[in-house]
Amino acid sequence: EAFESLLRFAENRTSSLFETAYRPMAKEAAEPVKELFTDLSLYILGAETTVESAVLRFFDSLFPLVYSRLINPGITDLSEDYTECLRLTRQDINPFGHYSKNMVTELSKSLWASRMLSQALSLGIEVINSTEHAALSKECSRALVRMQYCPHCQGLTLIRPCVGYCLNVMRGCLASVAELDAQWREFISTLEYLTNEMAASHELETALAGIWSSINEAILHAQLNGPQLSATVDKVCGQPKQQEGNLSSASIVPVKEVTGTQTFVMAHTSLNNRRREFISYMKRSRTFYASIAERLCDGDLVMRDSSTCWNGEDVV
Hints:
69% of the residues lie in helices and 0% in strands. The chain is mainly α. It has one domain (1-297). Helix 1 (2-21) packs antiparallel against helix 2 (23-44), helix 4 crosses helix 12 (226-237) and helix 6 packs antiparallel against helix 7 (163-173). It is rod-shaped. Cell surface proteoglycan. It is a lipid-anchor; GPI-anchor.
């Protein structure tokens, strides 16, 4: 939920960039922006995709818009063939400079930790669900009956099992579950490592918040190099139809911080708090599988503060 909240915020922020600074292409850019953040969301959830393919596919879709709406706003006929040629040419002429690669690098680091944490949580749920209904062997069932009900045959309905006896029975019944102890401890350590990674150099919030800035810088770079790009594109894709008199290139609009910082801070704080609370809770459960017999033999099940209890054979 916190991941999705941050992604939606970053998507809205990026859409605002186009609506504010690049209005001629804002409507057409809406779909590539939506696809980019959908791909990033699917990546975090474990889909067979990469951050690099998502980002580069976005810039492939963006270049025809930048070229026809900002660099050469006089283009009237943007056919499918010409658009596809522009998409393919983007990979060769690199109109967005180093900004597209930088965006891949920054997002890959932070989203990797988020993806791993998401997958680790899913795995943890599977493990917990698989042990929730542990099958009991015939020997275990007999031992439980002897511990709980055999005193009744002697009319001792209020006598409860001795602590040591209960522990022996429960440890025997739960031996297979207790074997998860080492792996469970390692799992908790892995979760702790991943949450620390997310909070440190691979901070998801910072990377997502910087997407709009990277895209803005990339577009400005393409506009500044408009004449060279046009000359190259004309050689590769040919000259498209132009309006008479050919409009001048759209002016470069410097963009200030897109509004919404307060919302971002709230989302950032929410994820940070959840991370801290979550890992603190999980660390307390580090010994869960090792101490499960002790947990079951605690409280009302056994007799603790009396000299009389049932040891499986007699009252002692």
